[in-house]
Structure to design on (795 residues):
């Protein structure tokens, strides 16, 4: 078909076909073409779905198809209001993709019937743009991430245009609000483009939206301030809106081309007011205006299912039938239920369809990373335990090399702490920045349109960017302060759900794993204090999808290198890596570190005694700082009680603690018993909240002898009546590292005291020494309060 033949008439017929299918999916289980009068048995037993967003989504999809054909675009479609899935599923079906992926949804009456029935039905399509929907890279279940996902998708993706529908309700969320500024990181020379389309349908579930109730000039000014040249289209009469949309979307695409032309010719990046469309149409457009006294079209009542009682109420059934017939299905589909031939021409063909664009299923695009040898970045362990190093520093050098080897498909993301987290070696490739640059900016790490480290103080936005980057076939790592990682906990959870479902879908290609480095940890918030102490992120993630989640606590710099090296090679996972950035003791050379990282758990000889004998006590730790304290405790104890048989176990892979039936990395009970014994006391020094270790191990044979120390929010439980109570002043403020450890009883003295108390043969014999340990604690605290720093302690 020639482009001039694509008239608003045809577009409107296609739109009607989409609306009919979207409504059919919500209501019908039979009689898909309404060839016979609508009866109650044709209505689903349970009508579910969201009508309100659907027409707007279909409308934008069809107009996107038009410009894909006209300009030969490489585009994907991102539906912010993903709950309007019927509005996306309908055009994806009509362009033939669903039938290719799922033969039961054939292009005929039976296929249509199957599609209608399967929607929001057990085992069928969900009510959002779930991973089962070809072309989707974001479900849109939890609102707020459409724009950050889109920007993530187009960074380093030169020709891609992500057509992104932002719901006007979605736009009220914090994550969406911060993501408009993503354009300050977009370099038109190397990056693709996002075309945001704000779907201003006026309502959320039950309320008007702010953006729909401010004046037009305020709205336009708002987006101008965000760096967009927005064009407002409005109307209720479809033909009129089609005509306006044709003009505005053509303008937007041509503007994108002119930006590309201007900047790419001489590789001269600059910032523009990027095109954006504001589409003010009624919510639930094309539905009946009113039912009895209630408004439907153009009101929040259109959000979900307007005639939800159609099965029981003959009057509603009649209205529903009238509504569905208003789309004239008999004129849109042929006798067999296939879309009219001349309308089929409107959709792009092959991989030009947004539903089969390779970026939305990155098998062909994703390339494994070229990785340097971690050994080249290792710390030399001159003297075990006494060698000290900043744990994350070598990782920075390693990542710098990863960037060098993979300039087009690897990025480092962080809110604003990449330097603070000691990863600033990566700044050699610059920090992405399209806003103003001042001479002094080059002082430490330079800002550049071509930079590869992405820092923006919105944990949500950078997380969204990374997710979008991964979903379109690339790789990355995000570093953040551990204490603020819970900000993105829900987002990571949504991503994990996506990945979990995707791994069950045969046609979905694996994506690179989401790697999160949590550093500046709870135990080292010397100058920030209580507000920066929160190891809770891992609690929110450990209960989820064992096939997806991994949690690593490398004890030192060399193990960290191996953990990251490994994580960057995995797919379809969320790798959480927790380690502090400060100077800490180093334990393992690269060979030992490799073995330890591979096993995930191990007995360390230098910290144990009587290695081939049954131990009197097991001391275990997980996390770099608790490991340091546990090892110091062992050194203190073994010097005093040389006959005591101590086994020290370091847990690097948290999930080794769970049973192998519950997590692929879990130890069998036999292995666990062999490490932790069936009946000896275990003193476990943990990085996070102690209950987590109990939860993971509650079924293990020796659980009743497991005593866990960990972070307790500095609560005084167990301490308030003890000798330490007098020292626990200023809980919310500044603490020295040892003081904080003592307050939570993960310090070397508390662990040594624990050992004495829990080992029967020491409990009485060790009383005097225990007393001395208490004195040492008191001295340490006195020293801290007096001098503001910890006393140098002899190990
Ligand atoms: C973060 C989040 N909060 C609340 C909800 C519940 N919810 C689902 S749809 C919706 C309204 C969305 O309105 P809008 O983005 O304008 O979409 P549309 O009007 O097109 O349906 C809300 C609040 C959600 N899905 N995600
Ligand atoms: Mg809305």
């Amino acid at each position: 078909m020639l482009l001039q033949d694509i008239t608003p008439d045809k577009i409107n017929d296609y739109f009607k076909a989409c609306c009919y299918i979207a409504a059919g999916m919500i209501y019908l289980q039979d009689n898909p073409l309404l060839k016979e009068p609508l009866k109650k048995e044709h209505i689903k037993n349970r009508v579910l779905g969201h009508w309100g967003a659907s027409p707007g989504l279909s409308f934008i999809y069809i107009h996107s198809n038009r410009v894909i054909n006209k300009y030969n675009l490489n585009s994907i479609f991102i539906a912010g209001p993903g709950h309007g899935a019927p509005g996306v599923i309908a055009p994806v079906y009509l362009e033939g993709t669903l039938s290719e992926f799922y033969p039961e949804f054939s292009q005929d009456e039976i296929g249509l019937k199957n599609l209608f029935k399967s929607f929001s039905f057990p085992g069928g399509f969900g009510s959002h743009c779930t991973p089962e929907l070809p072309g989707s890279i974001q479900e849109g279940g939890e609102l707020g991430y459409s724009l950050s996902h889109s920007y993530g998708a187009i960074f380093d993706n030169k020709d891609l245009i992500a057509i992104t529908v932002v719901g006007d309700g979605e736009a009220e969320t914090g994550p969406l609000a911060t993501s408009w500024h993503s354009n300050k990181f977009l370099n038109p020379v190397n990056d693709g483009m996002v075309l945001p389309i704000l779907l201003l349908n006026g309502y959320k579930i039950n309320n008007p939206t702010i953006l729909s109730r401010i004046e037009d000039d305020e709205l336009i000014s708002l987006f101008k301030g965000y760096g967009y040249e927005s064009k407002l289209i409005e109307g209720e009469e479809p033909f009129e809106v089609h005509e306006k949309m044709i003009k505005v979307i053509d303008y937007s695409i041509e503007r994108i081309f002119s930006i590309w032309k201007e900047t790419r010719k001489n590789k001269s990046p600059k910032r523009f007011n990027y095109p954006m469309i504001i589409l003010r149409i009624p919510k639930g457009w094309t539905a009946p205006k009113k039912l009895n006294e209630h408004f439907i079209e153009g009101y929040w009542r259109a959000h979900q299912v307007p005639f939800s009682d159609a099965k029981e109420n003959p009057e509603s059934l009649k209205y529903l039938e009238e509504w569905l017939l208003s789309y004239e299905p008999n004129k849109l589909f042929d006798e067999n239920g296939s879309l009219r031939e001349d309308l089929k021409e409107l959709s792009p063909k092959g991989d030009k369809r947004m539903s089969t664009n390779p970026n939305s299923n990155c098998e062909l695009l994703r390339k494994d990373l070229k990785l340097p040898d971690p050994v080249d970045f290792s710390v030399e362990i001159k003297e075990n335990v006494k060698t000290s190093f900043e744990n994350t520093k070598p990782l920075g050098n390693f990542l710098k090399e990863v960037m060098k080897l993979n300039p087009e498909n690897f990025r480092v993301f962080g809110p604003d702490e990449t330097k603070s987290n000691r990863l600033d070696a990566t700044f050699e490739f610059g920090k992405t920045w399209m806003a103003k640059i001042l001479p002094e900016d080059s002082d430490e790490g330079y800002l550049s349109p071509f930079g590869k480290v992405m820092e923006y103080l919105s944990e949500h936005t950078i997380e969204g960017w990374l997710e979008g980057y991964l979903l379109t076939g690339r790789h990355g790592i995000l570093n953040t302060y551990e204490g603020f990682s819970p900000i993105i906990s829900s987002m990571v959870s949504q991503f994990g759900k996506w990945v979990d479902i995707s791994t069950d879908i045969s046609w979905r290609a694996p994506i690179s794993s989401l790697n999160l480095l949590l550093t500046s940890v709870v135990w080292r918030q010397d100058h920030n204090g209580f507000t920066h102490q929160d190891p809770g992120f891992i609690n929110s993630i450990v209960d989820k999808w064992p096939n997806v989640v991994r949690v690593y606590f490398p004890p030192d710099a060399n193990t960290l290198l191996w953990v990251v090296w490994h994580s960057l090679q995995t797919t379809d996972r969320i790798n959480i890596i927790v380690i502090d950035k400060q100077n800490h003791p180093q334990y393992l050379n690269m060979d030992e570190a490799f073995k330890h990282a591979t096993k995930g758990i191990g007995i360390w000889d230098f910290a144990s005694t009587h290695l081939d004998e049954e131990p009197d006590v097991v001391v275990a730790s997980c996390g770099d700082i608790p490991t340091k304290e546990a090892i110091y405790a062992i050194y203190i104890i073994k010097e005093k009680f040389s006959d005591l048989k101590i086994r020290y176990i370091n847990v690097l892979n948290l999930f080794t603690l769970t049973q192998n039936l519950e997590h692929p990395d879990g130890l069998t009970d036999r292995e666990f018993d062999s490490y932790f014994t069936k009946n000896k006391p275990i003193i476990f020094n943990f990085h996070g909240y102690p209950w987590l270790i109990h939860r993971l191990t509650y079924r293990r044979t020796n659980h009743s002898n497991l005593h866990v120390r960990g972070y307790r929010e500095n609560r005084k439980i167990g301490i308030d009546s003890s000798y330490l109570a007098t020292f626990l002043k200023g809980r919310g403020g500044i603490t020295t590292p040892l003081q904080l450890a003592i307050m939570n009883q993960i310090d070397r003295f508390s662990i040594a005291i624990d050992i004495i108390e829990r080992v029967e043969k020491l409990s009485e014999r060790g009383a005097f020494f225990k007393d001395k340990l208490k004195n040492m604690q008191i001295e340490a605290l006195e020293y801290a309060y007096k001098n503001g720093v910890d006393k140098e302690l002899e190990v």
